[in-house]
Amino acid sequence: MVHHHSPRSSNAGAPGNSLIDVQQVVRTYRSASGTFTALKGVSLQVQAGEFVAVVGKSGSGKSTLINLIAGIDRPTSGAVLIAGTPVHTLSQEQLAIWRGRNVGVVFQFFQLLPTLTVAENVILPMDFCTTYPVRERRPRALALLERVGIAEQADKLPSALSGGQQQRAAIARALANDPALIVADEPTGNLDSHTADAVLQLFADLAAEGKTVVMVTHERDVTIVTRTITLADGAVVDSIENEKRHLTQFAQRAPNSQFSISEVHHA
């Protein structure tokens, strides 16, 4: 059980009180053409209940960072702790079990299994991790599909759904085992702006309920998030906290500004 810490708390960003604690992470890839360092000593902390956007140009290390946080990849050096678990030390088998129970992953291209119905796709993580009794799995899947607004699509194949509906199904699947952490890689990249806004609001609602959401996005003006972390050339260059409660007052003081910057941390 992860206890909810307000992202506004005075110790936000303090190691030891974070759901995510990335410490001096380096990730180097080797290929025939030589070595490429995707992340260069990145350190950051994310509290429970934060909705964080990771932004930066293509090749800045965004996807590498969230793959490390989700345990999909592992660092060349440095440490990745999620709710105190040193995921960088787990074996592949341990990682698969840990990720299945603790992390929900949402991809740009949905990655729903085409031969399973939408409900069966949502049930799959419960089957894999045996987190719920068999008789509870379909009712839970239907409740999650209701939560994301597509309960009526439960027994259709993914190909019968629109892109927005498929992404909602993918979010329901990510929530199947009630993970503390949701990791999303360009989840709105394939969606029109109206559908994208609805998906972002869904993530914001989940964060408000205590989930932690870390999302890679190309959208640089996502004001719905609690914090934006900017990467450039494999390093954190800015961590800007959006203080939405003061938006109106700030706009009155500085009408040309889009959001308030309460803290800027330089890596």
- Low-pLDDT segments, ≥5 res: 1-16, 244-267
Helix content: 25-40%
- Number of domains as seen in the coordinates: 1
| Series of H and E elements | EEEHEEHEHHHEHEEEHE
Beta-strand level of the residues, as a percent range?
A: 25-35%
- How many helices in DSSP terms? 7
Full CATH superfamily name: P-loop containing nucleotide triphosphate hydrolases
Major sheet characteristics: 7 strands, mixed
**Strands of the biggest beta sheet: in what spatial order?**
6-7-8-3-9-10-11
Helix and strand composition category: alpha/beta
On the 0 to 100 scale, the average pLDDT is: 80
What is the architecture at the second tier of CATH?
3-Layer(aba) Sandwich
Q: Count of DSSP E strands?
A: 11
Shape: globular
Cα gyration radius (Å): 19 Å
In CATH, the topology is named: Rossmann fold
CATH structural class? Alpha Beta
The N- to C-terminal Cα distance equals 30 Å
Task: Outline the structure in words.
The chain has 267 residues and is an alpha/beta fold. The protein has a single domain (49-61, 92-265), classed as Rossmann fold, CATH 3.40.50. The protein has seven helices and eleven strands. The protein has helices at 62-69, 92-102, 118-129, 134-147, 163-174, 193-208, 247-253; strands spanning 20-31, 34-46, 51-55, 77-82, 85-86, 103-106, 181-185, 212-216, 227-232, 235-242, 261-265. The strands form two sheets. Strands 6-7-8-3-9-10-11 form a seven-stranded mixed sheet. It has a four-stranded antiparallel sheet with strand order 2-1-4-5. α3 (118-129) packs across α4 (134-147), α3 (118-129) runs parallel beside α5 (163-174) and α4 (134-147) crosses α5. The longest helix is centred in the last third of the chain and has 16 residues, at 193-208. It is globular. The protein starts with 19 loop residues before the first strand and ends with a strand. 42% of the residues are buried.
